[in-house]
Amino acid sequence: MAHQHVHIHTHNHALTSLNTVFIVCIVINLLFVIIEAGVGFLFNSLGLLSDAGHNLSDVFSLLLSLFAYRMAKRHSTDHFTYGYKKSTVLVSLLNAIILLIAVGAIIIESIYKLRQPEQVSGVAVSWTAGIGILVNGITAWLLMKNQKHDLNVRGAFLHMAMDTLVSVGVVISGIIIVLTGFVLIDTLISLAIAILILISTWKLLKESLFLSLDAVPETIHLHELEKHIAQVEGVESFHHFHVWAMSTTENAATIHVVLKDLTQMEEVKHAVKDKLRDYGIQHSTVECEAPGSHCHDSCCCK
C-alpha cells in the first residue's frame, strides 16, 4: 500500500509539473503568434503568416494536451471505470489532424503566391523569425525532459524543435531577400515549412491512430516479451494475450497462463506480472489455468 501511495503521489506531481510547463509554453507561444501574424500582415510575408498559422495550431495542440492531462487526473467513475486516461490518445490523434489541415492551407496559399508574387520586407522577416527561434527553442527545452515516455509531449516537443529549424529557414530567406531581392524565396520557404510539418506529423498520426484502435504500443516489443513469459518457471503455456494503451503513458494487458502445477499459482502470477511491468505494462490481469484445461473464452484467439 505504501508503494502504491508513493507511485500515485509521484505520478500526480509529474502531471502537475507538466501542466505548469504547458501553461508557460502556451502563453509565450500565443504572444509570439500575435506578434508574428501582425508583422506578416504588415509586411505581406507569406513565410511569416504560414509560420504564425502553424504556431497557432501548436498553441491549440498545447491547450488540447493540457486538457487531456487534466482529464487523466480525474478519478474513475461507474461509467468510466478506467477514468479518462484514453483522452490523451484521442487528443494526440486530434493534434495530428489539426497539423495536416494546417499543411493543406499553407500549400494552397503557397501555390497562389507562386503565381502572383508580392514584395516582402527581408529585414522584418529576419527579425521576427529570429524571435521565433528563441521562443520555439525555449518551448522545446521546457518539454524536452518529459517527452521520452509520453506521445503527447513527444509530439509537442518535436513540433517545437521543428519550428525552431523552420524559423532558422525563415531568417535565411529574409537575408536572401535583403541581399538579392529574390522575393520568391519567401514562398519557397513556406512550402518547405509545409513539407517539414508533414514529415514530423506522420509518425504522430500513425502512432496515435494505432493506439486509438488498441494496437500494441510501439515501445513494447511483444515477441520479446512473449519469450520472457514462456521462460517463467512454472509456465507450461499461455494464450489470450492482449496488450493495449490506456493512455499515452499507461498500458494494460490480459493473459491466460496454463500452469505446470496449480500449487505454484501465486508465484507464477506475480512473476508474470513482474515481467509485464518490466516492459511498461502497469495494469495487468493474469488468469491461471490447470494443465490440460480448455479455455472457454470465445475470443481466445492469441
Give the topology, please.
Blueprint: H1 2-43, H2 46-72, H3 87-115, H4 122-144, H5 151-180, H6 184-212, H7 222-230, E1 235-245, E2 251-259, H8 265-278, E3 283-289
Parallel strand pairs: 2-3
Antiparallel strand pairs: 1-2
Helix pairs in contact: 1-2, 1-4, 2-3, 2-5, 2-6, 3-6, 4-5, 5-6
Low-confidence runs: 1-14
- Give the overall form: elongated
In N-to-C order, the SSE pattern is: HHHHHHHEEHE
The main pleated sheet reads as: 3 strands, mixed
Number of helices: 8
Total strands: the figure is 3
Tell me the strand order in the biggest sheet. Answer: 1-2-3
Instruction: Provide the residue-averaged pLDDT.
Output: 79
Based on CA atoms alone, the radius of gyration comes out at 25 Å
The amount of helix comes to: 55-70%
Q: How far apart are the first and last residues' alpha carbons, in Å?
A: 33 Å
In terms of DSSP E residues, the strand content is 5-15%
Coarse structural class: mainly alpha
Walk me through this protein's architecture:
This protein is elongated. It starts with a helix and ends in a 13-residue tail after the last strand. A three-stranded mixed beta sheet has the order 1-2-3, with helices on one face. It contains eight helices and three strands, in the order αααααααββαβ. The longest helix has 42 residues. With 302 residues, the protein is mainly alpha-helical. 67% of the residues lie in helices and 9% in strands. Helix 1 runs antiparallel to helix 2 and helix 3 runs antiparallel to helix 6. The N terminus is likely disordered.
